[in-house]
Amino acid sequence: MTLERQTEQQGQQRVQPQAEAQTDGDVRRIALLTSGGDAPGMNAAVRAVVRKGLYHGLDVYGIKRGYAGLLADEIQLMEPGSVADIIQRGGTTLYTARCEEFKQPDVQDQAARILARHGIDSLIVIGGDGSFRGALALARRGIRTIAIPGTIDNDIPGTDYTIGFDTAVNTVIGAIDKIRDTATSHERTYVVEVMGRGAGDIAMIAGLAGGAESIVIPEAPFVLDDVISKLRHGVERGKRHSIILVAEGVCRGMDIGDQIADATGWEVRVTVLGHLQRGGSPTAFDRSLASRMGAHAVDLLLGGETGKMVGIRGSQMVATDIAEALATERRLDLSIYELAGILSL
Ligand code: ADP
Ligand code: F6P
User: Fold this and answer.
1) If you classify domain 166-278 with CATH, what class do you get?
2) For the chain, which ranges sit under pLDDT 50?
3) CA quadruple 60, 62, 66, 71: dihedral positive or negative?
4) Are domains 3-164+282-327 and 166-278 of this chain identical in fold?
5) Which residues contact 279 (CB under 8 A, 6 or more apart)?
6) Ligand 1 binding pocket includes 103 (Cβ within 6 Å)
7) pTM greater than 0.90 (yes/no)
8) CA 209 to CA 195: how far, in whole Å?
């Protein structure tokens, strides 16, 4: 069925808009997609965009499989029921993909033409910084585009938190608690490798909240001898097990585990938590963050904005130019890292 036909049919059944669209432009038909690595809470953001858009009387379309689905014309009309029962689900019901060819300008031109052909004037992209670059490219091609930060890595400037980070941290803490049980029983040292791409946020916050003995992150200098001295010092004080959290952006956990075992002669075990950090039901924090960000993205479009990303600063929703956010160097609050070190002595 064509999009136009789908829209006509929906027009016959559509719930009445409950608010006047306060648009200073011609926002009428919006689309949304999820792109890059999935993150728990993306579904809550999708739900919020769809329901807030319908509330304002807009036509809302879901694009499947990120930019790859956009190029393949995988576009479907969304109704209130399309997003029923998904707020609690991890992953993304719109599916996600990585699409290398979308980095090419001529392919971005083609994507803008596809949207224009369907009369879609506005787009909301939920994803990480790579997805934001694609969003910016479309904004520069005249599609009103707003980006929502959805990634477990928490590595996007312009927001204190990204959707999915809190859930991932809670998953890591749950894993650390379990590993600590067996580490205690066997009196062993464990190295746990966590995700985060180039960012140490997951390792730092999960390390603080999980009581890790050492945390290794890309943002702080790391000297293996210091980690080992700290472990030895702990043993001298009667500590009989330890957990070292390593962010994947530094090196493989296995490498650190081998080096500690070689230097100490202790039995060391290594756990790579991997993709289980990307799954699971989103926490209340992520659901609420995603719901607020999704709704704010629609408000930004209705207010005539484009090329902006939604963020949270303190407890407030904020908007930043995507270009500015991408050009900003992100600073991790290393006082938290230092505190974790003090508390784990
Ligand atoms: P994330 O969005 O989670 O950071 P990626 O970095 O893999 O994940 O990016 C997701 C997708 O965003 C890519 O597969 C590609 O389609 C698009 N993308 C990434 N970088 C660019 C870029 N420089 N220009 C246009 N699109 C991009
Ligand atoms: O960006 C999210 C993330 O999970 C990173 O933490 C990790 O490095 C990467 O994606 C893994 O990507 P893939 O899904 O391609 O294995």
Assistant:
1) alpha beta
2) 12-15, 21-24
3) negative
4) yes
5) 40, 90, 91, 171
6) yes
7) yes
8) 16
Is the beta carbon of 210 within 6 A of some atom in ligand 1? no
Per-domain boundaries in the chain:
3-164+282-327, 166-278
Catalytic residue among 38, 59, 129, 153: 153
The three-class DSSP label of residue 145 is: strand
Q: To which residue do tokens 């992520």 refer?
A: 286
Ligand 2 atom nearest to 277, measured from its CA: 4
Q: What is the pLDDT of residues 278-314, one digit of tens each?
A: 999 999 999 999 999 999 999 999 999 999 999 999 9
pLDDT digits (tens, 9 = 90+) for 132-169: 999 999 999 999 999 999 999 999 999 999 999 999 99
Architecture of domain 3-164+282-327: 3-Layer(aba) Sandwich (3.40)
- pLDDT at position 228 is 95
Task: State the Cα–Cα distance between residues 307 and 319, nearest whole angstrom.
Answer: 10
> Tell me, what amino acid is at 168?
A
Active site residue 153: yes
Mutate to test the pocket of ligand 1, among 131, 143, 195, 330 (most ligand atoms within 8 A of CB): 131
